[in-house]
Each structure stands twice: as C-alpha cells, then as structure tokens.
Amino acid sequence: MKKNYQKKTASGVTAVELVLPDAVTVAMAEIGDAVKEGLLALAVATGLQVMTAMMEESVTALAGPKGRHQPDRAAVRHGTEAGSVALGGRRVPVRRPRVRATDGSGELPVEAYDTFAGSDLLGELALERMMAKLSTRRYRAGLEPVGAEVEATARSTSKSAVSRRFVARTETALSELMATDLAGLDVVALMIDGVHFAGHCCVVALGITIDGTKHPSAWSRATPRTRQWSRTSSLICAAGASTPPAQSWS
Fold first, then answer.
1. What is the DSSP string of 41-69?
2. H or E stretch including 237?
3. What angle do CA 77, 150, 41 make, to 5 degrees?
4. Is the pTM of the predicted complex or chain greater than 0.85?
C-alpha cells in the first residue's frame, strides 16, 4: 500500500514530510578508501550514501517512482544542481535534487535536503567550540576527522565564516534569554555590575530567587564616544526592581 506523505502548506503548495526508505544498499566499492582512515571516516562515507537515498525517497514521494508513467502526478523531477549540507562543523558539496509542480506554481522543497542543509548545527557547533576557548583561527583543529575525500571539498571553516556564525548564534541566544518571562520568579535579591570591554561599558542585572538560582534579568551597554545607553532588554521590573537601569551616565 502506498503511503501518503504529502501535505498542504500555508500557501497551498503541496509539500512532503521527511520520509525514510525501508532499506538502503551501500556501495562498498565507493567507500573502500574510507575504511583505511578509520571508523568515523567510514561512518561519514556511509552516511552520505544514506542521505542520498533519503533525498531520492523524498523526491519519489513528491513526483512518484522514476520512469513510471503517472498522468495524475502533481510534481515532476527537474534534475539536480550544486548544493551543500552541514557535516561535522563544515559544509560539504552535494547534488541537490529539484522537483517542480506540474501546475506551474514553481519548485517544491525536498524535505530531506532541507533537513541536512540547515545551518543551525553549524552555528551551535561554532558556539560550542568558542565557549571551550578554541579560537576561530584554530577552529579546524577542533573538528573530527571525516575522511580525506570529504575534507578536500569541505568549506565554511575559515576564520571569517566561523566568526559570523558565532556572532549570529550568540545574538540569537541572547535574544532568547532576554525574552524569557521572569514574572513568575520569586526574586529576593538583585545584583547589578558592570565591566569595561573593548571600549564598551556593559552592565548586567542578575536576579536571585529564594532557592538561590541566578537568572539574568537585563543588560545594557554604552560607548565612551556617545555616552548613550543601548538597552537590548530590560526585565528588571519583572524581576522585582522598582525602576529599570538609568539611561545615561552618572
């Protein structure tokens, strides 16, 4: 019995949920060299073949079996193009399958490719490495070996690329932290302190609940040149303080 993986998106375009093939055949001849480089390199080479099979399964769920006439199909294969996926803190090139809707509405997403191509894992890994005090210049040294063939084509490991991911991930993490609702906390103390860092004065408020747990409540920064505060978030009032931090230098 054929499974129905299709669903309607908000725009009315038919998409397909991520599907897994019942079985995958691995071409051992293609991963023979990886065996000599260790178990991790072998696992990576095998995983890339499995990923290719998953992408083909997603395409089949959209456009039907390849080479079989289906007059009522809603999508057709549209070849492949250059793409890349996240792998162990890097991006590696792959062939991205393309599918187009038969009604002319445009290209349809291939869920398996979109899953592996996402950059969230790269940002999280960059943040993890930087928090472990590994510099952006030494980022490559902290990556796990994935095999010479994969490593030769890998990219997005330069100092500038890692730095951009680290900045973006820390900004996201800070925004999520500062958006946390503290209204339900039983705050009994509020600590405010500041430090000069790279020409900026950063002031942070820390709320302490009755059980001793510390909760970041707000942070502000100002530069000596402008002497103006730029407050990213202020939840001090919600944490129990009567007024937010001052908006100018004292």
1. HHHHHHHHHHHHHHHHHHHHHHH-STT--
2. helix 236-239
3. 115
4. no
Q: Tens digits of per-residue pLDDT, 38-85?
A: 888 889 999 999 999 999 999 998 888 887 777 888 899 999 999 999
What the block records as the tokens of 245 is 């931090």
Rounded Cα distance, 44 and 144, in Å: 11
Q: What is d(CA 186, CA 165) in angstroms, rounded to the nearest whole number?
A: 36
Question: Residue 108 pairs with which residues in a beta bridge?
Answer: 99
CA dihedral (10, 16, 20, 24) positive or negative: negative
DSSP SS3 for 151: helix
Residue 82 pLDDT:
94
Give the separation between CA 128 and CA 170, rounded to whole angstroms.
11
| The pair of three-digit structure tokens given for residue 28, joined into one six-digit string | 């051992």
**Are 31 and 43 spatial neighbours (Cβ–Cβ below 8 Å)?**
no
Q: Is 73 within 8 Å of 63 (Cβ atoms)?
A: yes
**How far is 46 from 35, CA to CA, in rounded Å?**
10
Cα–Cα distance list, 41 to 36, 37, 50, 98, 153 (Å): 9, 6, 14, 28, 14
Contact, 250 vs 243, CB < 8 A?
A: no
- CA diameter of the chain: 77
Query: What DSSP character marks residue 244?
Result: P
Q: Which residues contact 110 (CB under 8 A, 6 or more apart)?
A: 16, 55, 58, 59, 62, 96, 97, 98, 99
Pairing state of beta strands 6-8 and 75-87? unpaired
Q: How far is CA 192 from the centre of its chain?
A: 33
The position carrying tokens 């187009």 is: 100
